Amino acid sequence: MYSFFLYLFILIYSTTLVWLSEHAKSATNKKIFMFLAFLLVFLPSAIRYGVGTDFFSYYDIFNYQDLVTKNEYGFYLINDVIRFLNLSFQWAIAAYSFVFTFVAFLSYPKRNAWIYHILFMAMLMFFSFNGIRQAISVVFIMLAIKYELENRTLILFILVFFASLFHQSAIFLVPAILFSKIPLSYKIKEVVFPLIITGVTAFIWLGASTFSIAENIVGKLDLPYQHYFESSYFETANINTGYLVLTKALLALILLLNSSKLLRVSENNWPIIVYTGFFIVFYSLASQSAAFGRLSYVYTPGVIYFLYLFISNYSKKSNTWFLFTFLTFFAYVLPYVTTSLSTINNPNNDNSYQTIFNKRF
Prior knowledge:
mainly alpha; globular
């Protein structure tokens, strides 16, 4: 119960502080409020103990460097510095948390940052407890996208490179970046790309069921070439089509089909639309393999920016799109609440909060 209230407290009060920072009259007050918001997110993460499915795996990684992928030199460096200073593993957790929170806060936009903050917290905070290396990699991608929106392509690639030093999955963003740089007509960006993403996503969700129905029909009609339908390629996949996952994918698709509204605001928003499309596809593929779920995190910053831009720039102009945007926003924030609720009356839950002082909150 206390873990739930703690996580809710962090979300609500850190968001309030970010909002106050944006509306403060003096530059000093802006920095103070933002610094307090940073501390409210960073400190609970830094002093956590045993929180997250991989917490003790990272303890082993800290003590046995051979467990780390050789190319993840950024993560190596943090551990090497902590060990060089003869500090304990808990200091490494604090260092991971600092890098994750600090880089994320650097990526915040100047306008309506509180919206961006809620999305960041809801979509990545718990992930940073469970997938530490990739979470750090993802916030570097968030910062990279901030510069991409300013057409600073060199800094974009440099930061993606830094992201890959913590988790090599960041490399999978490169094809999306290169695709977004291809000169395409406005019509392709506005209509064709969203329709292709919709078609691919529909095939992912319905494909296994479609093949299963086809196999049954072919069998009952005793049609020739039945062995093609009996091959392992066409076997029904065991898909976990959770309602929340499906809802998130469908709502994001609806907004993607109307992403032309963001292009009208600025054509610099095109990469955000591309990353969101990639996210929807890989997130949908996660219904068939957990590996795609982890890969979809590479494109999560695109969704954060996409929803942030949609809410900030368009939703106020139409009640209908405000409703769709609000529902999508709620669907992506809801997992934070449900994960927090899952800690109630379950002290053994992976996200049930505990500090280094072995006191439960």
